[in-house]
Amino acid sequence: MTEFRGVFPYLVSPVEADGRLRGEVLGRLCDDLIKAGVHGLTPLGSTGEFAYLGAAQRAAVVQATIEAAAGRVPVVAGVASTSTADAVAQAVAYQKQGADGILAILEAYFPLKDAQIESYFRAIADAVDIPVVIYTNPQFQRSDLTLDVIARLAEHPRIRYIKDASTNTGRLLSIINRCGDSLQVFAASAHIPAAVMLIGGVGWMAGPACIAPRQSVQLYELCKAQRWDEALTLQRRLWRVNEAFAKFNLAACIKAGLALQGYAVGDPVPPQAALTAVERKAVEQVLSEIA
Fold first, then answer.
1. Would you identify the CATH topology of the domain 6-213?
2. CB of 76 within 8 A of CB of 8?
3. How is 157-191 classified by DSSP, letter by letter?
4. Which residues are annotated as a binding site?
5. What pTM, to 2 d.p., does this model score?
6. What ranges do the domains of the chain cover?
7. What is the pLDDT of residues 102-154, one digit of tens each?
8. pLDDT single digits (tens) 60-116
9. Cβ neighbours of residue 248 under 8 Å, at least 6 residues apart?
10. Residues annotated in the binding site for pyruvate, as ranges?
11. Active-site residue list
């Protein structure tokens, strides 16, 4: 199986007002990110607005990403649903399209018990032959994964990674201590990547890497080389991007940043709204500071 390490930007989903994908724009973004040194691409993460897209749009985003990657880096496609059957169908379809891995996200309307949450992720992993990254984000998800559930899921041969966006770095260390090598940890934008690498993380999957790919890759390489003083100096500067990301709407912030860098990615999918002029100026200021 493919090993996932390093920087995996959560891609935006650039769509027209009528819903059509701006495939050319997404392809150029993917190509430039790969040239900047990123280690993989993740379509349909939180920044990819998966919750606002239809099935055909999601499939188009995944296909455009796979075609743009052209085997140069792995593509880990986001799968999300309130229904286990639908999530399984997405995962199977994305593997057939050529995805190298699945990012499994649980959407929930009614609260779920641990056994139900566990069965959702197991069903996805049972249905595919590629690595699965489980994603937990208690800030947005109605049903979170407990440490006990995570530990049991780590025993599945295809559930090999977790991306945790809890903002609780101690929880990450608990996962590492509990699961060992059976479950590798990716940081989210809610965590300090250098700190996660220090305690044993293998990289980060996050939207901010879309607008600061070279700096993100440089930070990863410094951490990997254990050049911690240099890494923390760069990390302090880059944290301004994470702060902006936390302050504004996720997709709106990254789409505004990409627009400022010359990518016509368009506005977030309604009912989300684009950043105001003042908010956009704040993102522009952050980009100028980290350049």
1. TIM Barrel (3.20.20)
2. yes
3. TTEEEEEE-SS-HHHHHHHHHHHGGGSEEEE-TTS
4. 47, 205
5. 0.96
6. 6-213
7. 999 999 888 899 999 999 999 999 999 999 999 987 666 666 799 999 999 99
8. 999 999 999 999 999 999 999 999 999 999 999 999 999 999 999 999 888 899 999
9. 275, 279, 282, 283
10. 47, 205
11. 135, 163
